[in-house]
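Sanity check

After download, print the first record. It should look like this:
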Amino acid sequence: MAARARSEERRAEILRAAFEVIAERGYRGASLGAVAERVGLTQQGLLHHFPTKEALLVAVLEARDQWDAVPRGEWRLDLLGALVEYNAMRPGIVQTFSALLGESVTDGHPARGFFTTRYGAVRENFAAVLRAEYGDRLPGGLTPEAAAPLMVAVMDGLQYQWLLAPDAVDMPGAFTDFLRLLGTGAGSPGAGEGGDDLDLDQRPRRDET
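Expected structure tokens:
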């Protein structure tokens, strides 16, 4: 039991070091050697705990999900917006997530199972968030289950655009705009006709505030 506890503690140290290296050097710079040096191990010693770089990076993403976790039923739309803002403060982690996500669509990739399972859970959680906010139908007529994959696509698509052009893409602001569209049912029959629907054309531009 003592040996197992030491091994788990060492794994936790390696994950923390990997977070630091990723934050400092990005996805490509996060080598096994750099992480091993930070925790006082040889690269061979690190391979005892994580046999490949991909295995280490997937473990980092799993740990990130655990550290960022909000108890089921406590997510709200405003918290999702806050999460996007938080991600904009840690580009190395977002870069690692996005790079592994793109690679994971290939057969046999070590991150494929992680992302497949993760996205199933995320779609389910987002549907629950949307149902709590809007009920069984969003203003545009979609069910929460139909809208949830669209929300996931917007979040991840914005991350790619932001990583490629951080000065041109305001990731938190664009996600907030998307939430406004969800709330007004923009593009649906009757949207903006009477009632209290927000006129998006009249909202202040970000450079005017």
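If your output differs, re-run the checksum step. Summary of this record's structure: The longest helix spans residues 2-29.
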